[in-house]
Write a structure and sequence with these properties.
Helices cover 54% and strands 18% of the residues. With 370 residues, it is an alpha+beta fold. It folds into two domains: 169 residues, no CATH class; 149 residues, no CATH class.
């Protein structure tokens, strides 16, 4: 019966293509929509994840970067450097601000570190230099391309006209961008000493247990919180989810429900369209069990082919969109589409069962009269 179901499907390939295409488009809708939100979350913590700093220090009571203000004691960096086990420590100043590009204000995360530090700046530079003078800035090359900007041209940040000295990569997202400026300038804008830091990024000595180093830091430097890079990024992502939780849940739910309805309707319609074939099977002696096997075989083949096609198309769309719009990251992880498999199995079974009663009651004589 399984072989019969397959032959029946491929006999009318146009009908098969339509039903597979319907399932595939529904899968694309589900995966791409969830991928857009996952990509937005991932970009929001791009700075944290791309710095080679397994430990982060911030003001006591602070556990994330977004929607928080952290100002460490002026001597915190020197104290941190003196702790045994600290290989490198970089003081980072951070602020939320808009990059004024002509008539457009682009929301941005502003970062600043000293020129001579080994990390803390852009992790990938397309053009220019990372050594910034007081009147210079590094912006993302995608942002520059969108507004027709290049090296040597100016943007305004917090009331200061800054010359573009470098173009970074991977720092422009759908919701925000990342820019880098001179630390002394940012400290002045924030009314702080140039030695001040919002966060301290730490590289421990090789093979040193991070938990041991964390305890040493907490004992040596008062008024701080110490977090691992992974925990800090996870905390920020959770904050972002909470900020947009209602909108994200609503849009994801709508796309998900629509996708499942399309899949169910496609399988339901495809099953009914083959009522004549099922009637012929009854006429030649197929019993109820045989009919059920054929119906489910065809339904699951439709869904399986549609699902595989949809997953492949989702990755293709994600690649094309990222190439055309670098700021839009569509992140489709393997676990995202694997989670859909048991749900699709249930939806397909329900969609195939609904018309089954009608097929069982079908009079074979009607088929032959038609």
């Amino acid at each position: 019966m399984i072989k019969l179901g397959w032959r029946n499907l491929i006999y009318e390939r146009t009908r098969l293509a339509i039903s597979v295409g319907g399932v595939a488009l529904a899968v694309v809708l589900i995966l791409v929509m969830s991928g857009v939100f996952a990509g937005t979350e991932e970009h929001a913590v791009a700075y944290i994840k791309n710095q080679p700093a397994p430990l982060w220090i911030m003001q006591s009571g602070v556990a994330n970067m977004h929607m928080s203000s952290s100002t460490l004691p002026f001597d915190a960096l020197e104290k941190v450097k003196s702790v045994p086990g600290v290989r490198e420590a970089v003081g980072l100043l951070y602020a939320n601000a808009g990059v004024d590009v002509g008539d457009t204000l682009v929301y941005s995360y502003i970062f600043a570190v000293e020129d001579d530090v080994p990390f803390g700046g852009p992790w990938e530079l397309a053009e220019g230099s990372t050594n910034l003078e007081r009147n210079e800035v590094i912006i993302d090359q995608g942002l520059a391309a969108r507004y027709g900007l290049g090296l040597g041209e100016k943007v305004n940040i917090l009331g200061s006209d800054l010359k573009i000295a470098g173009l970074s990569k991977g720092t422009f997202g759908i919701a925000t961008s990342i820019s880098f400026i001179n630390k002394e300038l940012l400290a002045n804008m924030m009314g702080l000493s140039s030695q001040a830091a919002s966060y301290i990024l730490i590289q421990p000595e090789v093979d040193l247990n991070i938990d041991i180093l964390s305890n040493r830091l907490l004992e040596t430097v008062p008024g701080i919180n110490v977090m691992t890079q992974a925990d800090f990024a996870a905390s920020d992502q959770e904050m972002i989810r909470q900020m947009g939780t209602d909108i994200i849940k609503a849009m994801n739910m709508v796309s998900y429900v629509v996708g499942l309805l399309v899949i169910g309707l496609t399988i339901y319609t495809a099953t009914l369209e083959r009522a004549r074939e099922y009637g012929m099977l009854k006429a030649i002696g197929a019993n109820f069990s045989s009919l059920v096997k054929v119906v489910f075989t065809q339904a699951y083949i439709n869904t399986g082919l549609g699902f595989i096609t949809g997953v492949v198309l989702s990755y293709v769309i994600a690649f094309i969109v990222s190439a055309l719009l670098p700021e839009m990251l569509i992140l489709i992880r393997v676990e995202n589409w694997l989670q859909q498999v048991p749900i699709l199995i249930g939806v397909t079974a329900l969609a195939a069962l609904l018309p089954l009663g009608r097929i069982v009651r079908l009079d074979p004589m009607v088929v032959f009269k038609a």
